Recover the amino acids of this structure.
């Protein structure tokens, strides 16, 4: 009796310490999670703060006259006329009319630099959509040059950046600002256009479509092959040295740096099979090889987690091994496999290193129309913009990161959602 | 079963892959120097937009990598044009010849200046190439002629008494970069030659001369800051005592945060680089495979656009992007040669 009360006392004494240790451990965990969240928050805030400007662009309102003489067009059906026509002359004459006191050649050049050189093509589209405008004039909001865009956004915040402008340009801009003919508008170009070396005309669409095409191919190639390999290794393959050797190799491959897969793609697909460089096909092939090990490993884990009783029941009911796998094991393992595939895809979406070797790190202005058109992908676009000298690309870079992050978040959420929805518990 | 359907899709896509390998190419392919890349891409974009034809595809592989791809062979699997921030080497020319790339059109498009810049919050440095060599070389001349010692200098004042008493701290590109090659060749070798016994060595023992003049110190005072010039500009803002090495166009774009050091009392600006009074500038080239002209559509039009006055002229759009144009007489001669597709003879003084 006295022995047990002694024990009780010992336990009660130690309880204080144990509770304290538990509390300390909990707090350590909370602090770790908070630190992680803060770091992520700081990153997101920094990116959003830097990139929010990219979603708006500066426009200026000018009176444009679609002068037939100036364009030298009399027949809209004649493609050649349309190509030869000097569309830039439209906005230049509009600027000259607006600031009629500018006479000197050098000053005129500075004046023309206010408007983006893409404005001529925008006016061309306007005119082609509505040919009756020829010979007429209308008031149009024209896209401003990137230096003007940077200046105006800075001006709105009270801290304009004038190092790239001359005094006259600032004066002209002030005149436009005073008459309320400069404003920020939603930057549709950013979502509708391909890459450009003029920041105000650069868009993310080319890279986005390139990423989608590449990932579709990656999924189509790696998912069936990965699942087939996993099923064979788990359900059919004899357990011997060979399969062990293969298993070790697959695990090794999952840890190989991604640049190696780029080199492999260069050596095998490009140099041996002569697949052209820079197209989604080659990107998809390389990324498929890269994600295969991940998919095989997660698929095998999903298959192992199917309880043996299911297999035994199927076999007991007279099903063949094939039927047992295809009718029972595979449907039950599929949610886990899908999750693995999506996580593999998310990793593939963020890769640039393997693409460097196969020519997908390139300036590609046209939006790809299919699997065999030259294309680039989102992370490459971010890399290229981050490397550009023009200051206005800083905000584009951050905005592109936001787009990439939202894709990644979307994919990861869908992985969680799929698992929740399809998962069965025993 | 769905499993078989997927296999079917995979088979079809594999066929598609193999099929696409043999199709002809509609897009001009350009590879090469990351320094020429910003200019080449502007021309490609303008050409694509105004002609309505596919925009040429420009890869930034570095000058050496570009040459290797370019000289691998003739045919649509190989690039049509390579950009370079230095002249083609003799060995590369020979490589091209061996692989059947016999007719090559060489075009010099302009110049690029390399600047040493620091934060706008401190005063402009005035350096000579000799100062740069003494501050950044791994081994420098000792007291006696012919003697070499490990670089002992840690402040600019030790290098040259007229310079400020600030520690030497230079952020520059790694050895893989073309900018680094050009910097070493133009600035460090230029300074090296100011020391008489080293200059004499150039003629007697070229290998040893190069080993001394081209080796950058590795004791941490020269910091390899990566290939991204924007990153170097940002680091200079944070660290006003450091100098950074990068291309002129980045100085041009960031004039509010950094300013360039004068070299032999000449500041880096548009005019001084164009008339070559600023000593650290390098030529920019591109090379065209003549066998591809007429086979891949658009090559001729693209290079004509590149060498038109509205592009590479003194007031052209490339000058707006920071490229320093050639003198007018050379532009005229080159443009004429291009229109006539004159290729290299093999007698050029290549290195």
């Amino acid at each position: 009796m006295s022995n047990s009360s002694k024990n009780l006392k010992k336990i009660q004494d130690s309880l204080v310490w144990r509770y304290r240790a538990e509390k300390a451990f909990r707090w350590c965990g909370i602090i770790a999670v908070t630190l992680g969240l803060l770091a992520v928050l700081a990153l997101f805030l920094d990116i959003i703060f830097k990139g929010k400007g990219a979603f708006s662009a500066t426009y200026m309102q000018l009176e444009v006259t679609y002068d037939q003489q100036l364009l030298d067009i009399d027949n809209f059906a004649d493609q050649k006329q349309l190509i030869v026509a000097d569309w830039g002359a439209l906005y230049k004459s509009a600027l000259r009319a607006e600031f009629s006191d500018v006479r000197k050649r050098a000053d005129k050049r500075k004046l023309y630099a206010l408007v983006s050189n893409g404005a001529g093509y925008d006016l061309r589209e306007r005119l082609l959509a509505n040919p009756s405008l020829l010979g007429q004039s209308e008031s149009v909001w024209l896209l401003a040059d990137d230096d003007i865009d940077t200046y105006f956004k800075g001006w709105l915040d009270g801290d304009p950046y004038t190092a790239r402008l001359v005094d006259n340009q600032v004066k002209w801009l002030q005149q436009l600002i005073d008459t309320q003919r400069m404003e920020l508008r939603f930057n549709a170009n950013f979502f509708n256009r391909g890459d450009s070396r003029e920041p105000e005309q650069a868009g993310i669409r080319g890279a986005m479509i390139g990423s989608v095409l590449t990932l579709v191919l990656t999924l189509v190639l790696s998912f069936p092959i990965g699942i087939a390999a996993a099923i064979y290794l788990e359900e059919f393959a004899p357990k011997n040295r060979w399969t062990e050797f293969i298993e070790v190799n697959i695990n090794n491959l999952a840890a190989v740096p991604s640049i190696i897969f780029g080199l492999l793609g260069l050596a095998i697909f490009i140099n041996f099979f002569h697949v052209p460089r820079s197209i989604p096909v080659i990107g998809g092939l390389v990324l498929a090889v890269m994600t295969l090990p991940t998919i095989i490993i997660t698929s095998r884990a999903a298959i192992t987690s199917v309880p043996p009783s299911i297999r035994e029941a199927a076999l007991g009911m007279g099903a063949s091994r094939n039927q047992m796998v295809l009718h029972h094991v595979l449907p039950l393992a599929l949610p886990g496999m899908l999750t693995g595939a999506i996580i593999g895809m998310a990793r593939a979406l963020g890769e640039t290193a393997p693409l460097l070797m196969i020519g997908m790190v390139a300036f590609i202005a046209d939006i790809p129309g299919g699997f065999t058109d030259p294309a680039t992908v989102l992370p490459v676009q971010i890399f290229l913009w981050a490397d550009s000298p023009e200051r206005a690309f800083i905000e584009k870079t951050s905005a592109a990161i936001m787009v990439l992050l939202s894709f990644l978040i979307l994919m990861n959420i869908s992985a969680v959602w799929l698992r929740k929805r399809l998962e069965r518990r025993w | 079963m769905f499993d078989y359907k997927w296999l079917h899709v995979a088979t079809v896509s594999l066929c598609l892959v193999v099929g696409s390998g043999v199709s002809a190419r509609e897009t001009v392919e350009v590879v090469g120097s990351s320094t020429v890349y910003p200019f080449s891409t502007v021309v490609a974009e303008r050409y694509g937009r105004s002609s309505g034809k596919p925009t040429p595809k420009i890869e930034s592989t570095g000058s050496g990598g570009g040459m290797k791809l370019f000289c691998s062979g003739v045919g649509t699997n190989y690039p049509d044009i390579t950009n370079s921030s230095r002249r083609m080497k003799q060995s590369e020319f020979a490589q091209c010849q061996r692989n059947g790339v016999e007719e090559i059109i060489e075009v010099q498009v302009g110049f690029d200046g390399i600047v040493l810049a620091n934060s706008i919050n401190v005063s402009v440095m005035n350096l000579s190439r000799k100062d740069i060599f003494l501050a950044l070389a791994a081994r420098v001349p000792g007291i006696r002629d012919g003697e070499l010692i490990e670089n002992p200098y840690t402040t600019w004042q030790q290098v040259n008494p007229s310079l400020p008493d600030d520690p030497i701290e230079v952020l520059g590109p790694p050895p893989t970069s073309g900018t680094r090659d050009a910097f070493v060749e133009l600035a460090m070798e230029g300074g090296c030659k100011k020391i008489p016994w080293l200059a004499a060595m150039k003629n007697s023992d070229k290998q040893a001369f190069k080993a001394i003049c081209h080796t950058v110190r590795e004791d941490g005072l020269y910091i390899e800051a990566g290939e991204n010039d924007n990153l170097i500009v940002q680091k200079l803002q944070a660290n006003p005592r450091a100098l950074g090495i990068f291309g002129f166009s980045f100085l041009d774009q960031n004039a509010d945060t950094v300013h360039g050091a004068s070299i032999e009392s000449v500041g880096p600006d548009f005019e001084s680089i164009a008339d070559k009074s600023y000593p650290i500038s390098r030529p920019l080239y591109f090379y065209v495979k003549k066998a591809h002209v007429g086979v891949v559509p658009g090559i001729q039009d693209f290079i004509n656009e590149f060498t038109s006055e509205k592009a590479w002229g003194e007031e052209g759009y490339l000058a707006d992007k920071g490229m320093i144009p050639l003198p007018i007489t050379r532009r005229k001669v080159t443009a004429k040669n291009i229109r006539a597709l004159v290729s290299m003879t093999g007698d050029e003084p290549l290195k």
